[in-house]
Amino acid sequence: MVATEGSRATYPRTENSRLIETGRTALLDRLLHAVPERAATLAQPPAGSGLRAVRGDLGIPLVGSGLGWLRWGPAQQIEQYRRWGPVTWSKTLGQPIVTVTGPDAAQVVVANKDKAFGQGWEYYIGPFFHRGLLLLEFEEHMFHRRLMQQAFTRPRLEQYFTELTELANRRIASWPTGRTIHLYSTLKALTLEVAAEIFMDADVGAERDRLNRAFIAATHAALAVVRAPVPGGNWRAGLRGRKVLEDYFYRMLPAKRSSAGNDFFSALCHARDEDGSRFTDADVVNHMIFLIMAAHDTSTTTATSVAYFLGKHPEWQERARAESLARPSGPLDMQVLEAMTTLEMCIKESLRLVSPVPGLVRRTVADTEILGYYVPAGVLVDVNVWANHLLAEYWPQPERFDPERFSPQRREDKSHRYAWMPFGAGAHKCIGMHFGMLEVKTILDAMLRNFEWSYAGSPSRGYEMPWGYSTISFPRDDAPIVLRRR
Q1: Radius of gyration of the chain (CA)
Q2: Residue 139 burial by CB count (10 A; 0-12/13-18/19+): exposed, middle or buried?
Q3: Cα–Cα distance between 283 and 152 in angstroms, integer?
Q4: Highest mean pLDDT range out of 133-147, 166-180, 206-220, 327-341?
Q5: 140-351+425-485: CATH superfamily
Q6: Would the pLDDT of 434 be above 70?
Q7: CB neighbours (10 Å) of residue 351?
Q8: Using CA atoms, how far apart are residues 227 and 365, in angstroms rounded to an integer?
Q9: Which of 66, 73, 225, 392 has the most beta carbons within 10 angstroms of its beta carbon?
């Protein structure tokens, strides 16, 4: 099926249906649906170009489509796709933004063959994650990426893995049982501790909660409606969070410059290219702030979603547990973990259903076209990664949790090169994706060997995790769970 302007699709209420269908029963849902459509054209194509104009709905005056996204997430994007086609536009936080849905449209933007697309994250997260790797572009980005890649070689990963498994297994084995804990917060504390120990060779100790609050403030500020440091506002909280993080890393910098540690922080301080160039102090701090945010926020969301789906599907939990228990006892071996295919399929399917990073943001640096639609220079472009993972054209029964999609016999993720891209794609593909997969696998392996849990029976029958939508997705209820010791 190819979406065309004016077409719509409705779905019955089934498992995870809120990810693909906008709600219509709650008061806020009804109010948002009652807003009259404000159809508009982004820009007229040049005469004689043969290109089509991008059409879309301007949404609520002054607010645009932002409230719909915060309420419905990928379901809103899928609805826009059915209504307007693969390339549409609206306004979010006062900014015109083109949204592209479908693997073909994603390929045009991400492959960037005519170099018409630069990074677009600056508008959202620039003040809080200044000059992080994702915010650099073209030659400068490649220079920084080459230097940072030295910290993600196979020998480095094996070293990190040894520390990761020891810490994660020790912490997870001590989790309480028989009462409700909030898995998201618990995992967030663990992944920050892992990131600090592995990438910084530091024990955050008493500063853990303070740093976590700073990271949360910085990430949530990206979608602040009032984009000024007014008292009580998210923007101001984000700027304060950035200051906390800068102060923390600058305090550590002199010792890292003067030592020859094996951690990532030290590696950045001493990394040099073939000409002997190295990172400035500001470069190192900027990269560390962005890396630690990405390393623990995305892993937290992913591990939470995997645990949730395994709790909803006890048959898959048992399959994954049998695989974990079948491995040799003793310290976990990296190659053994990489070969655990059942757990890997469950993780990949969870990444499809709940993409930690919902979209990739670019900005046009020249007039260009996407699938025959004219897009002028200077416009933000959002590649709808999460929505692409839920399109029935590429994923049969997309709302179902079905890890077999990733089995060698089916490989639905290979239906199109850009059908599944939770780690991004192109020049800005996640530099730490292999470590991230190892971390999530290690966490779930430890949980499976220590505990059982379920959302399938009473009293949690019918529970659906309420996902929150921001630059990084998260569970609004902090993911309550009751673990039972095996």
Answers
A1: 22
A2: exposed
A3: 18
A4: 166-180
A5: Cytochrome P450 (1.10.630.10)
A6: yes
A7: 27
A8: 24
A9: 73
Determine the Cα–Cα distance for residues 136 and 119; give it in Å rounded to an integer. Answer: 7
**CB-based contacts of 94: which residues, under 8 Å, 6+ apart?**
62, 64
Residues β-bridged to residue 118: 363
* Residues 190 and 171: beta-carbon distance below 8 Å: yes
DSSP characters over 359-410: -EEEEESS-EEETTEEE-TT-EEEE-HHHHTT-TTTSSSTTS--GGGGSTTT
Q: What per-residue confidence (pLDDT) applies to 365? A: 96
340-346-347-349 Cα dihedral, nearest 10 degrees: 140
pLDDT of 233-278, one tens digit each? 999 999 999 999 999 999 999 999 988 887 888 888 888 777 777 8
pLDDT tens string 184-214 = 999 999 998 998 888 888 877 778 889 889 9
> What amino acid occupies position 149?
Q
* Tokens matching residue 451: 């505990």
CB atoms near residue 120 (< 10 Å)? 24
Does the pLDDT at position 40 exceed 70?
yes
Q: What is the pLDDT of residue 456?
A: 62
Contact 35, 57 (CB under 8 A): no
Q: How is 101-128 classified by DSSP, letter by letter? A: -SHHHHHHHHH-TTS-EEE-THHHHTTT
- The CA distance from 226 to 326, in Å, is 53
